[in-house]
Amino acid sequence: MSSKIVLITGASSGIGAATARRLAIAGHHVVIGARRADRLEALVLELNEGGHKADHATLDVTDRDSVSAFVEGAYERHGRVDVLVNNAGVMPLSPLASLRVEDWNQMFDVNVKGVLHGIAAALPLMKAQGHGHFVNMSSSLAHYVAPATAVYSASKYAVRAISDGLRKEHDNIRVTEISPSFTESELLQGGDPDTMAFVQTMADRFSIPASTVADAIAYAVDQPADIDVSEIALRSRAEV
Ligand code: NDP
User: Fold this and answer.
1) What pTM value is reported for the model?
2) Residue 177: how many CB atoms within 10 A of its CB?
3) Ligand 1, residues 185, 186, 188, 208: which to mutate, most atoms within 8 A of Cβ?
4) Of 179, 181, 193, 228, which has fewest CB within 10 angstroms of its CB?
5) CA distance 129 to 29
6) Could you tell me which CATH number the domain at 5-233 has?
7) DSSP letters for 176-237
């Protein structure tokens, strides 16, 4: 299958938007989702005017019904769902002692429950069609914890665990976990101001382009059907 139906959550900016561009240019049909409809519309227009296949629907990954509508709508329009890139995420970092409980809840709602909602929507369709591929956006912070990253790291450790379990439970479903470190995007918003200012200095030094992460996702998507690219980790050489 050379041209796949690829759904991408969190495609209104950053890694998701770069992945949509990369996969559409490779000949896949991308269905992009996020909350900011104006961003999605502009990206679809850009891709369609370039001769590429793309459509969009707004979604909020914290809402199971919204994710179901996004996935089922794509299935109805295109007849199959080959790949779901569970990319939407937030990272309002803070030390635990600051008790930013709303931020903790948001990170679990978007980063963990958002991925689970994607699986709940797409897995039955993929099982019925006999194939499917989940690309779950993890992080270098799914592999270690730094001060102020405990809750975000926990959310991404959870994505690792869910990805591993999903792979082990299904023979004909491919599961790829992507673990980038600092990447150019709009991720650094909210959180504890001092923490986020420090993280911004690190991001300024070490960020890799979002298109590099998109290339890694394209590599996993374009492997033969019997190859599971289980994990790809990426970081700037300068950060090592
Ligand atoms: P961006 O902030 O640029 O992109 C995040 C995307 O998630 C946006 O499109 C946003 O769209 C979407 N999003 C946020 N909340 C929701 C929601 N409730 N429902 C639907 N979509 C939502 O950051 P990145 O591109 O960096 O983030 C993409 C993924 O990469 C995240 O999972 C992040 O954790 C991960 N990551 C990023 C790294 C980095 O350094 N940038 C490093 C490692 C991992 P909208 O606001 O329009 O809904």
Assistant:
1) 0.98
2) 26
3) 185
4) 193
5) 18
6) 3.40.50.720
7) EEEEE-SBSSS---SS-HHHHHHHHHHHHHHPBPHHHHHHHHHHHHTS-TT----EEEE--G
